[in-house]
Design brief:
Radius of gyration: 17 Å
Oligomer: single chain
CATH class: Alpha Beta
Strand order of the largest sheet: 3-2-1-4-6-5-7
CATH topology: Spore Coat Polysaccharide Biosynthesis Protein SpsA, Chain A
Order of helices and strands: EHEHEHEHEHEHHEHEE
CATH superfamily: Spore Coat Polysaccharide Biosynthesis Protein SpsA, Chain A
Structural class: alpha/beta
Helix content: 25-40%
CATH architecture: Alpha-Beta Complex
Number of helices: 8
Length: 240
């Protein structure tokens, strides 16, 4: 029986993957019933071959291959659709998220939280990334009244019922903390170890970060006045 599903969007990460899969195995070795779902998002390097080889060594590793790049959010949604676990874990595949830190997040889930997000208290990213991220988090706090510290962190643990309720179309999943909180779920952020990038290049530039700010303002308009949140199905559910 699968209890934990770890979902990994992969885009040109062939050098990171062997270490990453090994580290996830170490992080989960004391837990029974887990799987890894790696979604190859049209990688142009050796990621598909590396994933196929790793899956032959790691029976918990399942693969989804996109012929062309569809983006991180589409990759995550594809993973959610096939995930069998009651607990869903997401992280990036570039080794900056430390898999061993998942135990901190899962401890909070065991204490009654529905969505737990990793807070990169000390970030090993460029100065402009850190500045824009800080600005976005402060803007979210002002607009939502919630003191979020790292809204855009990819390292998260969800109970399945949270993912069943929050919007997942487009890039709205990046605001899962906002939506889950608005819908009455119990959420928190936990400080986690963030590591310097060892391989490859960041896929996020200034334009994408500005798009996050733009998306955030649009999302907050959903919360203004009516107290309602639009969901994937087109229904409106009043916040608890």
């Amino acid at each position: 029986m699968i209890k934990y599903s770890w979902i990994l969007p992969v885009k040109n990460e062939d050098q990171s993957l062997p270490q990453l899969i090994t580290e996830i195995g170490r992080a989960m070795k004391k837990r029974s019933g887990w799987e890894i779902i790696a979604i190859n998002d049209g990688s142009e390097d050796l990621s598909p071959i590396t994933l196929t080889y790793l899956s032959s060594l790691t029976p918990q590793l399942k693969l989804i291959n996109f012929r062309t790049a569809q983006g991180k959010w589409a990759a995550l949604r594809a993973g959610f659709e096939v995930a069998r676990g009651r607990i869903i874990i997401t992280s990036d595949s570039d080794l900056q998220d430390d898999p061993l830190e998942v135990n901190k997040l899962l401890a909070k889930i065991n204490h009654g939280f529905d969505l737990v997000s990793g807070w990169r208290k000390i970030r090993y990213d460029s100065s402009y990334k850190r500045w824009i991220s800080r600005f976005g988090n402060q803007l979210a706090a002002i607009l939502s009244g919630q003191p979020f510290l790292d809204l855009n962190s990819s390292f998260k643990v969800y109970k399945r019922e949270v993912l069943a309720e929050i919007p997942k179309h487009g890039s709205l999943l990046r605001f899962s903390l906002l939506f889950a909180k608005k819908l009455g779920f119990k959420v928190c952020e936990v400080s986690v170890n963030h590591r310097p990038r060892t391989y490859g290049k960041s896929k996020f530039g200034l334009v994408k970060y500005l798009r996050i700010i733009y998306d955030l303002i649009l999302v907050m308009l959903l919360f203004t006045g009516s107290g309602r949140v639009g969901l994937d199905s087109g229904r409106l559910r009043r916040a608890k």
